[in-house]
Amino acid sequence: MSKAEEGEAPTTPAGPRAGGIQVGMASSSVRVAEGGKDPKQMLRVQSIMKKVGGAQRSREVHAILEELDRDHDGTIDVAELIDMVEGIVKSRRERRYMWFVIIALFVFAACTIGTIIGLTYAVVNALKDTEVTGSVMYVKGSATDVVKVGSADFAVVNNVMVPRSAADAANPTNITSPTSVMQTAAFAGIRQPLSSRLPLETLFELKFLHIKGVGEAELGVDVNGVARVPLAGSVYGTVVRMITAAGTITLDGTVLTFSSQVADIFEEAGFRVSGSRRALVGDYYVFGFFNAIKDLEPFGLPSDQARPQLPDKNFRMSLKVYQPCTPPGAPGDLCAYAPPADSWDGTAAAAVVDIDGTETTNGVRWMTHHETLVNWEGMVRTETYFALYPGFRKVEVRGAAGSDQQISAWQEEYDEADPLVAVETMFCRTYGMPEGLQGAVLSDSVRNFTYLGVDTLAGGRLARHFQLTVAQQANLTGVVTVDYWDSADDRSPVSFAVDHPVLGELRMEVLDFGPLTAVSPQAQAALFAAPTKEDCPDRALVPQLASPFSVLSGSSLKPALVDGGSDGAAARRRATEVARFRRELAASGGCDGPTKTLYSGPLGPCTFNVDYMVPWHLVGRAECTAAIGAVSLTGTVSGNTCSMKVEGCLSVGLAITQNWLMSKMGMGNFYILKACALYDPSVNMPFIVRATLQWVQQWIRLV
Q: SUPFAM superfamilies from the entry (predicted)?
């Protein structure tokens, strides 16, 4: 039987290749007999299977061929082959789309997880009832309410604090309270000079009486009770009787009297007792230790006179401040300096001269400057003027009580003809109120407040004299003594004197004081608003006001003794010229002045611009771009020799091939990362680096 009769195709040369597999073609006679199809456009399944090796592979290939042979006639025609190719193309396209969907879902999941984590932290932070500031835990939103916690070692039983172990060991059914009551150290109290004129509410807080005599004579007794008793012939019409363990002691003004039984104790302590044995003889001081003093009552102030007090708000005050030229610990006279030689004309250096603002009063040398304080509706603006820097002032503004207590500080160049007009602002910064002063109560640290009488000041002006002694913060030693004088007529402030253990003696003379109203020029809202960052540059050629002891040349102070015959007029004239030159240079633009292009053009992958800025500075900028495959790099750097600032940025981008899916998602080329750095030698931290993951922002925007 021939091969045609057996149903096999005759051996023919290799037919066309499809998918890398060569197959035979069916005979024309057989194919025409079977269906009239063109044998050149058909493939027999059996011919293909003969060329497939391996049983497992043969079964897999046969299953696929049966799927292609849709009419089950044992041959694969062109239409069936085209359907197979279209299926392959479709599957590859769907697989590509699937990868885009997988990547998009992965990014979406990452953004979702990041958002959930961020929201979790935000919710946790919002639900916090406390916050930590300076290693101290406060109630959230307050800078004074410290968090109080219960003791793990002690418990309160029937209003008595006892060890917790004793409370736990007690029988719950036993009505007897636990023993072992906790003992605490006793508070000595607030020391205050004692007089029978003190209010009765203050006398009720008296717990200890201290009498100090000449030499080492001292006596202290506990006070069990006090009483104010009317007595004819007394200094103020009443006396105070203090009940002590030694007996009753009577205080009339500042004079002590007592019964004869108490005299023995005073004699044994070293005091001189009168012949009647009912009073002390000689000089002595009487002090009292009080549990608490609600109000600051000056000791010795007559009852018909008002307490010293500044207005709470809405006033202005101009001061002239005196600082010592030789404070404690100073190596020499800080008000003197040796000016350097003039490098312009070769003039030799002058002798040691006084810095502008130096004054001598009664043989004592002082450095002076002026301050203006404006208080409007609780907001405080303080202006400081130094003699070395005419036309400039330092400004500090603090918000009203209850605000965030942030202090905004900046420097202004003002119009000397109209001081309320600021020509330019510079050197802006913001800092917080020191933690030790937030919520501080003055009465908590007062050690003494005394009325010393009426003094005659310069010019024959009469003023009441008060002295306040205040303890410093817990981490500092010593006390601060403040002497205050106010007018005997209208109680307005006249002068202040501060004796500080570190700064020495400071004096402040009140030049002007008065109330403010809503129409006062000093009450303008604009004066209490801090300048924006854009309106407050750092001028390299303008002196930054820091201290009245600083000189314009920027040289460090050279402490030395000033020759009494030296004349500082030449140095002052020179300083004034330097100040005028710097103001004119700043007004002409300073580091933002006009420029002239020296070079501008490409160089490799970069573009450079080099400018010349009047009078002698260079300004440069460079921008470079490069691409590595789909990743693009862009960098910029700029700087100048005037401010010595250098800043630059580097951006990493990704190019996205556009197709229907990317267009549907709105995706295009975007930056993955942008990092910027700034070098500024005029600040404490000259290097500032900022990096931004911009692809996260891009995906969040899309989602």
A: EF-hand
